[in-house]
Specification:
There is one protein chain. Strands 1, 2, 3, 4, 5, 6, 7 and 8 form an eight-stranded mixed β-sheet that branches. It is elongated and about 85 Å long. The protein contains 15 helices and eight strands. The protein is α/β, with parallel strands linked by helices and 382 residues long.
């Protein structure tokens, strides 16, 4: 049935994306333009699907969860939505199992946690989940056609293949259906998704002072032939180990100096804190690796421009490309360790903002405030 005919008949369903700022909002905006056509193709082509996006922080309650029912009711009333799909970059759980999504047919709303979709093919996984959620929520809507598709055509049946989940039906979060990730594979998928949501490459501009100190130190390795001799004598394995040590040193320094490590005081918080701490190490480590690659490129270019072949040959007895690479490699590693000290001049708030998503920063600020309040209470009682 042509869409114009559907519109004239008044058979339409209004879907609203309610998304956290940052990656969820960008994901929702990219999907909004095409989702109507996808829903017509895969869910019901007898309905005119209307899709819009609203970006706002989904505030946390006292239990570090999102009170979705009240938030969705307000947004639905203001935007004239019939159904709400919320996208968040907050990792959510049912017990100690990572939650991919939850939906309530009664309240006409669903929530998808982006970290649980993982890093690899995140966009495709989000598309599958959103189509499935809309299909499930609107299945009994009178605007939809009576003819139902075979079960194999429903997009949701492919979710099992990418998420390795256990589908459960219950009343967690006041929801009718939720999908969780299980086992080691599920935890790894959640961890990778958390790191992806943090977007570690954003650390590079925030480490300008560290990069300047690293570049200055690396230049000394290019200018002095004693460094050439050492670099040329080292094997690739040894150079790689020096690189790993330098990256680890700068990562540890950034985490400790900027207070990025969580120290939970309650036993039930330790498992979640361990996951967040591993996510922090991975995020900062990847950010430092980006800085290192940039530094290596600059240092290698500098070596090729500054060091003449005849000068290198007089010092090393040969002038080969691998010698230039070894010099830049060692100089970059030493520069990275010096850059750790240079990072002390960075604004801690800027580093935190670059290292975490908006939702993760909010959660950590709440965690810090609660830790301070608990410390005050212990001091008062003591």
């Amino acid at each position: 049935m042509p869409k114009d005919d559907v519109s004239e008949g008044g058979r339409s369903i209004r879907i609203g994306f309610l998304a956290d700022p940052g990656l969820p909002s960008k994901m929702a905006e990219r999907m909004a333009d095409k989702l109507a056509d996808v829903l017509s193709e895969k869910v019901d082509d007898t309905v005119l699907w209307r899709v819009s996006v609203r970006s706002e922080p989904l505030v946390l309650d006292g239990h570090d969860d999102i009170p979705l029912n009240s938030i969705a009711r307000t947004a639905s009333a203001e935007e004239d939505w019939e159904y709400v799909v919320a996208l968040t970059d907050l990792p959510r759980r049912v017990g100690n199992r990572p939650l991919l999504f939850s939906l309530s047919k009664a309240h006409r709303l669903a929530m998808l946690s982006l970290p649980a979709t993982g890093w690899i093919r995140m966009r495709a996984h989000v598309w599958q989940a959103v189509v499935h959620l809309v299909d499930r929520m609107t299945a009994e809507d009178p605007s939809r056609g009576r003819a139902s598709r075979p079960a194999s055509e429903h997009a949701g049946h492919r979710l099992v293949t990418f998420a390795s989940p256990v589908r459960s039906v219950g009343h967690e979060y006041d929801m009718d259906e939720y999908l969780v990730l299980v086992g080691l594979r599920g935890r790894i998928r959640l961890l990778l998704g958390m790191v992806r949501s943090n977007r570690p490459w954003r650390l590079v501009p925030s480490l300008s002072s560290a990069f300047a100190a690293a570049a200055a130190t690396g230049s000394f390795g290019v200018f002095y032939n004693s460094m050439w001799v050492i670099a040329d004598a080292l094997s690739p394995l040894r150079l790689a180990l020096i690189s790993v040590f330098a990256l680890a040193a700068m990562t540890v320094w950034l985490i400790v100096y900027n207070g990025l490590w969580e120290h939970p005081t309650k036993r039930h918080e330790r498992e979640a804190a361990a996951l967040y701490n591993v996510s922090t190490v991975c995020t900062v480590g990847l950010g430092v690796a980006c800085v290192y690659v940039l530094l290596l490129g600059v240092t290698l270019t500098e070596a090729l421009v500054v060091i003449d072949d005849s000068v290198m040959e007089s010092s090393l007895g040969h002038a080969r490309l691998d010698s230039y690479v070894s010099i830049a490699w060692l100089a970059s590693s030493l520069g990275t360790m010096a850059g750790a000290l240079g990072s002390s001049f960075e604004d801690q708030a800027a580093v935190r903002e670059a290292a975490y998503s908006a939702r993760e920063r909010e959660r950590r600020e709440r965690f810090d405030e609660e830790s301070k309040e608990e410390g005050v209470r212990r001091d008062a009682s003591g």
